[in-house]
Amino acid sequence: MSVGRLARLAALVAAVSLAALASGSGLVEGAPLMELNHENFTEYLHQNPYVLVSFYAPWCGHCKKLEPKLEKVAARTDTFKVVKFDADNFYNKKISRDKYDVKSFPRVIAFAEGSHFKYQGPREEGAILGFLKKLGQDTVLELPNEFALTKFPPAEEKKINVHTSFVYLGGMSEEYKSLLRVARDRKDTTWFGRLTHPSRALLDRLGVKELPAIVAKFDGEHYRETEVLEVAENSRADDEDYDPDASVREFVDSHFTPPFHVITPPAFGALRARNLPVLMVVTDKSRQDKVVKSFSKAVADLIPQYRDRVSFAVINGEEYHSWLYYEFGVDMTSEASPALRYILYQSLEDGTGRMKQFNPETKNKVSIKEEEARRMLELGLSEEVPWTFTGEMAWARNARAKVKAFATKVYKRITNLYAVYVKGANVEAKEL
C-alpha cells in the first residue's frame, strides 16, 4: 500500500474517531438503532440504567419518520442508550402490550433508575434530548445556597412548567428518603430540590416553623402559591399513626398540579390529571390578559375552599376554537356568542367527558367578581343543572340523562301530589 493511501486511510480513521468523541456517546450520527426483543429486553435494562426505547411497528409510517431523529438523539446523548423494539411482533407483545400498555405506535418510553416514563412531547430531536437531560439529572438536586433557590426550577422551565416544584429543607431524615422515592416517579414532569442549611429569615418568609420541612412552590405567570408540610417531630408528636411515606406522598400528590391555569395543551393535560371538574372561562385573544387577571383575583379566596373539588382555568376561545366547537358546541366566532362564557368540564375515565355551560349575568366583557364566580361554582356543582356528555356515543348518554331527569321530575311531582292529597286526607279523617 502506498504512503499516500495510508495517509488517507489514517485521516479517515481519525475523522470517524473525532465524530464519535464529539457525539459523547461513541455513536456516529445516523448509525442504526440497536433492536431488542422479548429474549434480551429485560436483561438489557438490568445492564443499562438509562435506556430510551422506541416501541414501533414495521408498517407504521410515523415510526419510520421518527427513527432517523432517534438515531441523531442516540449520537448526541451522553447518558441514555437509544434502542427500538418491534411491539407488533407476536412474541414481543407480552412486554410491549401486556407490561407497558403499548397499543399505538410509535410509543417512546424512557427507563431511568428503575422507573419508566412515557414521552408525550413533540417528536423532534431537541425536545426528546431535553426530556432525556431532565431524566438524567439527580432525582433531588442539591441547592448550594439560598440564592440557588431563587433560580429553582431553572428559568427556562418556569415558563413552560405546569406542575409544582418541591424543596426539602433540612438534614437527612425518613421524610427525605420518602421524598426521594416519590420524586423518582415524578422526575420527568417536575423538579425536586434540597437546601440543607436555610436561614431563619428564609424559613420565616416561607412560613416554616421547624426543620425539616417540605415546601411546595409554584411561581407561574398568572398564579402563585406556596404550601408547607411540617415534618419536624414536634409537629407530629400526637400522631401515633404517622407514616412518613404516606404523609409525603399525599402532600406531593395533592399539590402536584396547581388548581389554576391558562389553558395550553400541557396545562389542560395537567388539570385533567387532577380528576376534578374544571371551571373554564372562555374569552377571546384581545381580552384574555384582562380576563385572566380578573378571574384569578375573583377566585383567590375560593381556591382554598374548593381546590379538592374543582380546578380553575381561562381559555382563549379563538386559539382553541376547533376544540371548543367540536367538544362543547361553543362557537366563539359567532356574533351572537357572548364575550364571556363559563364551562364546567370533567374528563371521564373512558376518554369522554361531561360539561355544564353558563352565561354570565353581567354584560361586562372582562371583569369577573368573586360573587359571580362563587355562584357559577355552586350552580355547577349542584344537581340543579344536569350534565351534558361529550365525545363518543355522547348522544346516547345525553338521551339517558334526559330520560332520567324527566323520570326524576315526574317522581317528585307524584310524591308531592301524594303528600298533598293522600296524607292530607288522612289528617282530615283523623281529625273527624
How far apart, in Å, are the first and last alpha carbons? 130 Å
Classify the beta-strand content into a percent band.
Answer: 15-25%
Q: In one word, what is the shape?
A: globular
Going by CATH, the architecture of the largest domain would be: 3-Layer(aba) Sandwich
Number of domains: 4
Describe the SSE topology.
Layout: H1 3-23, E1 34-36, H2 41-47, E2 50-56, H3 61-76, E3 81-86, H4 93-96, E4 107-112, E5 115-118, H5 125-136, E6 141-142, H6 146-150, H7 155-160, E7 165-169, H8 174-184, E8 192-195, H9 200-206, E9 213-219, E10 224-230, H10 244-255, E11 260-262, H11 265-272, E12 278-283, H12 288-298, H13 303-306, E13 311-316, H14 321-328, E14 341-347, E15 353-358, H15 370-381, E16 388-390, H16 394-431
Parallel strand pairs: 1-3, 2-3, 6-8, 7-8, 11-13, 12-13
Antiparallel strand pairs: 2-4, 4-5, 7-9, 9-10, 12-14, 14-15, 15-16
Helix pairs in contact: 3-5, 8-10
What would you say this structure looks like, in words?
- This protein has 432 residues and is α/β, with parallel strands linked by helices.
- The chain has four domains: 21-135, Glutaredoxin (3-Layer(aba) Sandwich); 139-255, 3-Layer(aba) Sandwich (Glutaredoxin), CATH 3.40.30; 260-392, 3-Layer(aba) Sandwich (Glutaredoxin), CATH 3.40.30.10; 393-432.
- It has 16 helices and 16 strands.
- It has helices spanning 3-23, 41-47, 61-76, 93-96, 125-136, 146-150, 155-160, 174-184, 200-206, 244-255, 265-272, 288-298, 303-306, 321-328, 370-381, 394-431; strands at 34-36, 50-56, 81-86, 107-112, 115-118, 141-142, 165-169, 192-195, 213-219, 224-230, 260-262, 278-283, 311-316, 341-347, 353-358, 388-390.
- The strands form three sheets. A six-stranded mixed β-sheet has the order 11-13-12-14-15-16, sandwiched between helices. A five-stranded mixed β-sheet has the order 1-3-2-4-5, sandwiched between helices. A five-stranded mixed β-sheet has the order 6-8-7-9-10, covered by helices on one side.
- A hairpin with a 5-residue loop joins strand 14 and strand 15 (353-358).
- Helix 3 crosses helix 5 and helix 8 packs across helix 10.
- The longest helix is centred in the C-terminal third of the chain and has 38 residues, at 394-431.
- Mean pLDDT is 84; it is low at 10-26.
